[in-house]
Amino acid sequence: MGSISIIQIILVGIVGFIAGIDQFSFTESLYQPIVTGAVVGAILGDLKTGLIVGGTYQLMTIGNMPVGGAQPPNAVIGGIMATVFAISSHLKPEAAVGLAVPFSLLGQYCITIIFTIMAPVMTKADKYASEANDKGICRINYGAMALLGAFFALVCILGLVGGSAVGSQLSALSQKYAWIMAGLGAAGGMMRFVGFAILLRIMLANDMWGIYLTGFALSTVIGKVEGLSGSCLLLVSFVGIAIAIYDFQTNVKIKSLVVASDDGGEEDGI
């Protein structure tokens, strides 16, 4: 990618600003890497790479979630920077994801600091609540959102400018020290499975093992069929949706039968 324009810098900053607020306030999933990757990729002139990198980073972070005050590596900053590295330095998605991890850790630390700073302000919010001062509460909320969004925008802009400036050096590094890029690629490739493992640990129930293994078998078989490998996950998802709909309808019918049998009734003289 050539030199970036001021318009691209501003647009990436806006994306970071909106995504940072959305992650904690709007919760419209605009902050998800698969969304920000595509948007940033379109801004930088390579939508396809943005979609690929965003999807790769999404798989890595699918099981990450904050627990109490603990924050996982930030997916917004990591996803945007992975897209920037992949496009500006022409890196493979796995290697770009590996290079973006330090940025996601930076986001994790800084968000924790922001939350710590805002914690004492909650006493002021409690006071406003007791006084029924809705304007005061709105000022606190909007101020916190603006601070968080500004931080995300600043980090993304600095990362975009720096990432583009060192693009040629990273490309040379990938050629001269191929083993480093191979290691980053391997690490980035493993992270998606770590994300799935965390998700399964939280969500998987004993009665779901059959469906899980069925999906694994279907994805393996379909993935080997030429012409279907590209849409393998989509096809397996459709099978999963069909099973979920069938299971839901079956449970609804069983519950309705149980309710009907409990009502008794006088039909046919019974």
UniProtKB/TrEMBL annotation:
It is found in: Cell membrane. Keywords: Cell membrane, Membrane, Phosphotransferase system, Sugar transport, Transmembrane, Transmembrane helix, Transport. It comes from the Bacteria. Pfam families: EII-Sor. It is a multi-pass membrane protein. Its main location: membrane. GO terms for cellular component: plasma membrane. GO terms for biological process: phosphoenolpyruvate-dependent sugar phosphotransferase system. The chain crosses the membrane at residues 7-24, 30-53, 74-91, 97-121, 142-165, 177-199, 228-246. This is N-acetylgalactosamine PTS system EIIC component. It comes from Clostridium neonatale.
